[in-house]
Design brief:
The chain is built from three helices and nine strands. The protein is α+β, with helices and mostly antiparallel strands and about 150 residues long. α1 packs parallel to α2.
C-alpha cells in the first residue's frame, strides 16, 4: 500500500497538521527557506538562497505536544528525521511521515526488549508491510515507552 505523495515540505507540514488535529495535539512549526538557511547546505555561501539548479530549498522542524514527545525535521531531499521520546528515526521517506505519526498516536507502535544484543527497541509498523525499528539509547524508558512494552 503506497502512501499519498507529498511533493513539497509545505505539503508534508499540512499532512502533519491534519494528523495533529485528528489526535488533538498542539503543533509548532519552524521553517527555514534558502540554501544558506537549511541544515544540509553547509557549503552554501553567505546569502546564497538558491541551489545551483535554481531551486529554493525548504526545511521545516515540527514539534508535536503531548505524550510521547515527538519532533519531525523535514528535509528538502524528500526525507525526514522523526524523534519519538528520544528514539531517533533517520531517513524516513517524507511520504511515510503521516502514516508513521498515525501509527505512534494510534497505539500501533510498541517497545520490545532483547537480551542479546541487550536493549530496548521502538518498533513502528506502517500499512503495507513497512516497519521502522530504532534502538532506544537512553538508559531508562519514559512513561510512554514503558506503557508500550510487549513481552
Amino acid at each position: 500500500m503506497g502512501h499519498p505523495h507529498l511533493p513539497t515540505t509545505e505539503s508534508a507540514v499540512r499532512a502533519i497538521r491534519e494528523v495533529a488535529e485528528e489526535y488533538h495535539r498542539e503543533m509548532a512549526v519552524t521553517e527555514d527557506i534558502g540554501a544558506d538557511q537549511t541544515s544540509r547546505r553547509t557549503s552554501a555561501g553567505a546569502f546564497t538562497v538558491f541551489d545551483p539548479d535554481g531551486s529554493l530549498p525548504h526545511e521545516a522542524f515540527v514539534e508535536l505536544g503531548g505524550a510521547p514527545v515527538v519532533t519531525v525535521r523535514l528535509f528538502p531531499e524528500d526525507d525526514a528525521k522523526i524523534v519519538v521520546d528520544g528514539a531517533e528515526f533517520d531517513d524516513i521517506p517524507r511520504d511515510s511521515v503521516p502514516a508513521f505519526l498515525r501509527s505512534v498516536y494510534g497505539e500501533l507502535a510498541y517497545v520490545k526488549g532483547r537480551f542479546f544484543p541487550p536493549g530496548w527497541w521502538l518498533i513502528v509498523p506502517l500499512p503495507g508491510d513497512e516497519t521502522y525499528k530504532e534502538l532506544i539509547l537512553t538508559g531508562t524508558l519514559t512513561r510512554w515507552l514503558s506503557s508500550r512494552v510487549r513481552r
